[in-house]
Design a protein that fits this description.
The protein has 385 residues and is an all-alpha fold. It contains 20 helices and no strands. The chain is globular.
C-alpha cells in the first residue's frame, strides 16, 4: 500500500522537476519576451484557481476520486501533446491552459485519497509525500544533465517518459474505502471559510505564493544571467528539494514542540531572508546554497502544516473542497499574481527586483499570521500528538 501511494507523488513531482527549472529557459529559447514568459508560466498556477474546486466538488459529491485522478492524468497528457506543434504565444497559452486544467486536478484529489487511506496513521503522510520530492530531484538532475548535451528545444521530448509514468501510476492508485457510498455533507462550508482564522490561513498562503512568483518564473533565468550552467541550475533546484525532504522527515517532531502559529511565523521569516539572499548575493555560492536550503521552510514546513490545518477545519465532509480552495486560492491565485508581478519587475528593473518584491510580500504575511492565525478545532496531528 505504501509504495502504491508514493508512486503517483513520485511521477507527478518528477514532471514539476522537468518543468519548473527549465520551462522558462525553453520559452526564452523560443524567443518569447519576459512578460510573455511570465504569462505562460502563470498558467501553471492560474488554472489551480478553478480546476481543483471543480474536481474537488466532483470528488466530494461522487466519491469517485480515484477515477477522476486517472481521467485527469490521461487527458492532461493528451493536451500537452499540443506543445509539439510549436504554436505561437497564444496557441501555446491555450495548450498550457488546457493541459494544466486537468493536470492540476490530480494533486488535491490525491491528497484526500492519501490521508483517508492512511487513516489513523496520518503522521506517516510526510514519509509518503517525500517520494514526490525524490521524483522532483531525479527529474531535475537528469533533465539538467541531458540539457547540457542537447538543445533546450528538446525539453518537451524529454518529458514524455514522465507523462507515461504518471499515466501508469494513476492506475495503480488504491481504491478509497467507501468510495462508492459518499456521505451527504453536513455543516456549512460558508461558515468554515468565513472563520477569521481560516481567512488568515488562506491570506498567509496566498502571500507566500505571491512571493514565490519570482522563484518559479525567473530563478533559472536569474542564475543563467550570473553565469550558472543548466546542470548547476538543476542541482541548485535539487538542493532546495533535498532540504524539503529532510524537513518532512522531522516535521512530526517539530509539530510536537511548536504550535502551528510558531512554525508558520518562523518559516515565513526564513522565506523573507531567502529572497533577500538570492536578490543580492547570487554570486556567492555558499550563500546561494544556504538560500536553497531554506526551501525547507518556504515550502516544506508551510505545506506540511497547511495540509493538516485544512483537515482540522474542514473535516471529512468538506475535505476535498478545502484542499481545492487551498490549491486554488494560494498556489493558483497567489502563484499567478506572483508570476505576473515578477514579470513586470524583471521587465522594468531586472531579476533582483522581483526577489526583493517577494521579501516585502513576506513581511506582510508575517504580520497577517501574527495577528490572525489560530489552531484549528480538530488538529490531532499538529496539537495532540
Amino acid at each position: 500500500m505504501y509504495w502504491r501511494l508514493s508512486n503517483l507523488y513520485f511521477w507527478f513531482f518528477a514532471l514539476l522537476g522537468g518543468l519548473l527549472p527549465y520551462w522558462s529557459l525553453y520559452l526564452e529559447g523560443r524567443g518569447f519576451s519576459y512578460l510573455q514568459i511570465a504569462t505562460l508560466m502563470a498558467t501553471i498556477q492560474l488554472t489551480k484557481i478553478i480546476a481543483p474546486s471543480v474536481w474537488g466538488w466532483l470528488g466530494d459529491r461522487t466519491g469517485q476520486r480515484v477515477r477522476l485522478v486517472r481521467f485527469g492524468a490521461i487527458t492532461g497528457s493528451l493536451f500537452f501533446a499540443g506543445v509539439f506543434l510549436e504554436p505561437g504565444f497564444y496557441g501555446l497559452l491555450l495548450v498550457m491552459l488546457a493541459f494544466t486544467f486537468f493536470w492540476n486536478a490530480i494533486l488535491p484529489l490525491y491528497e484526500v485519497i492519501t490521508l483517508r487511506t492512511l487513516g489513523e496513521h496520518r503522521d506517516r503522510y510526510g514519509k509518503v509525500r517525500l517520494w514526490g520530492s525524490v521524483g522532483f530531484i531525479g527529474a531535475v538532475g537528469l533533465v539538467g544533465g541531458l540539457l547540457e548535451l542537447v538543445p533546450i528545444a528538446t525539453l518537451p521530448w524529454l518529458l514524455l517518459p514522465v507523462f507515461a509514468g504518471i499515466a501508469v501510476s494513476a492506475f495503480l492508485v488504491p481504491a478509497e474505502r467507501g468510495e462508492r457510498k459518499p456521505r451527504a455533507p453536513t455543516g456549512s462550508l460558508k461558515k468554515i471559510v468565513s472563520h477569521p482564522a481560516v481567512i488568515a490561513f488562506f491570506l498567509m498562503n496566498f502571500l507566500l505564493q505571491v512571493s514565490h512568483g519570482a522563484y518559479y518564473t525567473f530563478f533559472s533565468i536569474h542564475l543563467e544571467q550570473h553565469g550558472y550552467g543548466k546542470l548547476s541550475i538543476g542541482l541548485l533546484w535539487c538542493l532546495g528539494v533535498i532540504a524539503e525532504i529532510g524537513l518532512f522527515l522531522i516535521m512530526h517532531r517539530l509539530s510536537r514542540r511548536f504550535s502551528v502559529r510558531q512554525i508558520a511565523i518562523g518559516a515565513l521569516a526564513l522565506t523573507m531572508i531567502r529572497w533577500v539572499l538570492i536578490a543580492e548575493l547570487t554570486d556567492v555560492i555558499g550563500v546561494l546554497l544556504l538560500a536553497q536550503c531554506l526551501h525547507a521552510a518556504s515550502y516544506g514546513a508551510l505545506h506540511a502544516i497547511s495540509v493538516q490545518y485544512i483537515q482540522g477545519f474542514f473535516g471529512a465532509h468538506h475535505h476535498g473542497q478545502g484542499q481545492a480552495l487551498y490549491s486554488g486560492l494560494t498556489f493558483g491565485a497567489g502563484g499567478a499574481v506572483g508570476a505576473w508581478l515578477s514579470g513586470f519587475l524583471v521587465d522594468g528593473f531586472g531579476t533582483p527586483a522581483a526577489f526583493w518584491g517577494g521579501a516585502a510580500t513576506m513581511l506582510v504575511a508575517i504580520l497577517v499570521t501574527w495577528r490572525g492565525l489560530r489552531p484549528p478545532p480538530k488538529a490531532p496531528s499538529m496539537a495532540s500528538r
